[in-house]
């Protein structure tokens, strides 16, 4: 099966952006400042990798050529949560960054107070969106549970952020960096795939895989490997690319004395580890045959990208 990864990314991003535009309050809706700030950060750019992974997982599990109806809403909720995390990550109290996705960060444009509230608002909007997904009540509850866990404090995004802060100015170890990456970045990638699997297995399509539990397990493990590989490459790019190519401040990890994979293993070993992790991740997609080709192509892109 011939796969055009650029077309997959383009279509997935367009689907997601249309859903985001529909789901988010307009800039003219009172109170306007918060809605302008939310939209500033959401539509500042970005490759929409997490939403694309979510959509492709749902499509693969459902066994359809097109994503299941409404999958773009789930993808949009994932992107809202991702953007909320970026807004807060860039705040002066955390990473204190002024550039994100090639544009001024939310607090630079709107002030710190509105930026904090914009992140909060995107999180609540995401859960409102999840609660109205066109799936069975059981499937919706399971998706919400998975997402809440992945963004929480125990092996989740917020917990990973705390570990990252606490690790600054300490000698990084392999165990430390692995724990940070799997939680801070990997958890949201992992749940994008797992939630997509739940959504796809609940599609009611005869071409889908009947064992939803097995689908979620496979996609979760696939996501663990792919998510770690993604962050390892992110660490490498922070050391090897400039701010113009990255769309964010280059060299930030080194300047902040962050615990990164290259800091422990070096750049060449880090590249080898990222490629090995993707190869290992592919083994979890073997039961899907050619249906997994698109998802594999996106995962391969995670480690071959230059920004």
Rg over alpha carbons: 18 Å
Unreliable stretches, pLDDT < 50, 5 or more residues?
Answer: 205-211
Let me know the CATH homologous superfamily. Answer: Farnesyl Diphosphate Synthase
What class do helices, strands and sheet pairing give? mainly alpha
> What topology, given as strand order, has the largest sheet?
1-2
Helix percent reads: 55-70%
Structure description:
With 307 residues, the chain is an all-alpha fold. It has helices at residues 5-23, 32-42, 49-62, 71-89, 106-110, 112-131, 137-150, 157-167, 174-184, 186-201, 212-240, 243-246, 252-255, 261-265, 267-282, 293-304, and strands at 99-100, 103-104. The chain has one domain (5-304): Farnesyl Diphosphate Synthase, CATH 1.10.600. It has a two-stranded antiparallel sheet. Helix 1 packs across helix 3, helix 11 packs parallel to helix 16 and helix 15 (267-282) packs antiparallel against helix 16. The longest helix has 29 residues, at 212-240. The two termini are 27 Å apart.
Helix and strand arrangement:
Blueprint: H1 5-23, H2 32-42, H3 49-62, H4 71-89, E1 99-100, E2 103-104, H5 106-110, H6 112-131, H7 137-150, H8 157-167, H9 174-184, H10 186-201, H11 212-240, H12 243-246, H13 252-255, H14 261-265, H15 267-282, H16 293-304
Antiparallel strand pairs: 1-2
């Amino acid at each position: 099966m011939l796969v055009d990864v650029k077309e997959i990314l383009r279509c997935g991003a367009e689907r997601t952006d249309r859903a985001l535009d529909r789901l988010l309050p307009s800039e003219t809706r009172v109170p306007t400042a918060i809605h302008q700030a939310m939209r500033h950060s959401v539509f500042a750019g970005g490759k929409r990798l997490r939403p694309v992974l979510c959509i492709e997982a749902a499509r693969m599990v459902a066994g359809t050529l097109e994503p299941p109806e409404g999958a773009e809403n789930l993808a949009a909720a994932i992107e809202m949560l991702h953007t909320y995390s970026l807004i807060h990550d860039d705040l002066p109290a955390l990473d204190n960054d002024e550039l994100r996705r090639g544009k001024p960060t939310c607090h630079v444009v709107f002030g710190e107070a509105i930026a904090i509230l914009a992140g909060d608002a995107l999180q609540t909007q995401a859960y409102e969106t999840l609660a109205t997904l066109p799936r069975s009540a059981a499937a919706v509850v399971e998706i919400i549970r998975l997402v809440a866990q992945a963004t929480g404090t125990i092996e989740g995004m917020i917990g990973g952020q705390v570990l990252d802060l606490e690790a600054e100015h300490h000698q990084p170890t392999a165990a430390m960096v692995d724990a940070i990456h799997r939680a801070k970045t990997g958890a949201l990638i992992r749940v994008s795939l797992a939630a997509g699997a739940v959504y796809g297995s609940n599609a009611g399509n005869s071409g889908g895989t009947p064992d939803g539990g097995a689908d979620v397990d496979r996609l979760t493990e696939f996501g663990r490997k792919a998510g770690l590989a993604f962050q390892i490459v992110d660490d490498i790019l922070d050391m090897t690319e400039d701010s113009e190519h990255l769309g964010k401040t280059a060299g930030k990890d080194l300047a902040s004395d962050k615990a990164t994979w290259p800091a422990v293993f070096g750049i060449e070993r880090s590249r080898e580890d990222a490629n090995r992790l993707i190869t290992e991740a592919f083994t979890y997609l073997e039961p899907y045959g050619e249906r997994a080709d698109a998802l594999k192509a996106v995962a391969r892109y995670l480690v071959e990208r230059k920004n």
